Amino acid sequence: MNPTSDDELTQRAQRRVNQKMGFYKHLAVYGVVNLGLAAISLVNGQRWYLGPLLGWGVGLAIHGLVTFTNLRGDGMRERMLAAEVDKLRRQQRP
To answer: pLDDT for 1-24, tens place per residue?
Structure first.
């Protein structure tokens, strides 16, 4: 499904911007929360903040990969959606 009209291109661009903004918000929350956890942990002379830092960091990395690898072209979801739309259109034809 290749967008041809300006409206379709605008919608596609908006979806990509929303994906990027979602990742950047996630990154900001990750930074603020983990700085707070590290400060609390280090004030108490401990290093328990490393667990949440690493665990959440893996999730953040996956979020980044999904966000930025799907931006170069249609992702799997868009291809599956296009295939389903084509299938339904063929079924409606007499």
So the answer is: 455 678 887 888 888 899 899 999
